[in-house]
Amino acid sequence: MLDFNHILSTPGYDIQQFYAATGTTLVRWQTWRKPRGVNWVYMIGVGGAGGGGCGRNAAATGCGGGGGGSGAQTTAMIPAQFVPDTLYVQAGFGGVGGAVASANGTAGIATYVAIEPSTTLTANMLFLVANGGGGGGGGGGVSGLAGTAGTVSTIANMCLAGRGVYNFLAGQAGSTGRITAVGDSLTPQANGLMVTGGTGGGGSNGVNAAFAGGAVSAITGTLGTDFFPLPISGGIAGTNAPSSGGAGRSGFVSRNLLFNFGGTGGGGAVQNASSIPGAGGDGAPGCGGGGSGGSNITSVTVRPGGYGGPGFVIIISW
User: Fold this and answer.
1) Which of 32, 45, 50, 72 is the most exposed place for a label (fewest CB within 10 A)?
2) Taking 60 as the threshold, does the pLDDT of residue 7 lie above it?
3) Model pTM score
4) What kind and span of H or E run contains 15?
């Protein structure tokens, strides 16, 4: 295994990562065991993200689907003496993208770290809760609605974190799919959130009037380094050649887990039976899926919105 983070040889330092294993909540728990001799336990969790909405195929105007919202983010750092020898983790599953014309994406599932693998959790059983993001709206008559951000947790939702220090961040909403414009772009938040929503799909409203999917803007000041990329484009618009709309790009994890990126929106198709709208890109872990493009001809089969990224938990102890 390549040690990109230079941590494998550090004595007394343990990292365990958990990702979603099931689409049903509170039924398949993963186990964390406290290493011997550690003094502190740090955990960060993000909820499952929402899937992107599916674009519309209509006789006059085809609207792109909205991007899914990201999961919320929660961190806690707790003295090891207050942490049981075994914890139970369920990382929330990401939502599925809308698969038929104008269908909404589904919401992501919340992420939990608990002291018991129960199907009836209470706040006094929880060290961490991170809520899931909302699914993007299907391409409608006006716009494909953006998926809502995962809602922020509170200490009242996860009382055991009160033994240490904690922080809560809401997720990021996706962006809107459009008819007569490029799908809305999205800029990563500058508040410590390590995930993004997905962007909306482009629409179509004429013989040669299709539009690209929304892009993810560059993070200010990074200049396209290997830690953060330059702007991530959406799917290209179809043309009257004819060519189909391009698929949105799937999100990815940047170096050292500094940031995860959502999927971008698919491009719209022109008014031609050979021009097909682009699918939405899948979100990286915790990030929203992109909405798919729209078409203004009813005979064309639309493509699905992107999958929302699965939730995750990282527990570091030393």
Assistant:
1) 32
2) no
3) 0.92
4) strand 14-19
